[in-house]
Amino acid sequence: GPPPVLGLPPPPNPEVDPFDESDLFFHDPLPFLQRLYPGGAEHGASAALPSHIVVFDDAALLEQIGPFLRAHQFAQQQKMFNAHFAVDRGLQANILVFWRRTAARSSNVSAGSTIEQPRTHDIQ
């Protein structure tokens, strides 16, 4: 089936809980990701990690989630145009796609097949 996607939907009842997952993520991105994907490769959780992470190009956000991306071997694969200017905190001018380098190694590949690795940029 299709890979799981974290959509950050609005809360089911905003009067009871006014915060949606998007609010929780942007309030403190690194702990949010660490709670969503606990452990890491050393704890056997690498299979639960997504193969890609897509975020808006926001320097402050990237600084906050950089430790998570580096710890789980994500590298920037692509930068895509989104808008001519930043609209608000979540809708920035560009979209960044990060690819988990170990994802291709752990996928099922038949003997003799090759995997074309995406061009990546190391995270600073």
Could you characterize what this model shows?
With 124 residues, this protein is of the alpha+beta class. It has helices at 21-27, 29-36, 59-71, 101-106; strands at 52-56, 74-81, 94-100. Helix 2 (29-36) runs parallel beside helix 3. The model is unreliable at 106-118 (pLDDT under 50).
Mean pLDDT: 74
Strand segment count: 3
Detail the poorly predicted runs: 106-118
> Which strands sit side by side, in order, in the main sheet?
1-3-2
Tally of individual helices:
4
Cα distance, first to last residue? Answer: 34 Å
* Biggest sheet record: 3 strands, antiparallel
The percent range for strand residues is: 15-25%
Radius of gyration: 16 Å
SS-based structural class? alpha+beta
In one word, what is the shape?
globular
> What percentage of residues falls in helices of 4 or more residues?
25-40%
The topology string of helices and strands comes to HHEHEEH
Tags for this model:
single chain; about 120 residues; alpha+beta; 3-stranded antiparallel beta sheet; 4 helices; globular
Compact overview of the structure:
The chain is of the alpha+beta class.
Secondary-structure blueprint:
Layout: H1 21-27, H2 29-36, E1 52-56, H3 59-71, E2 74-81, E3 94-100, H4 101-106
Antiparallel strand pairs: 1-3, 2-3
Helix pairs in contact: 1-2, 2-3
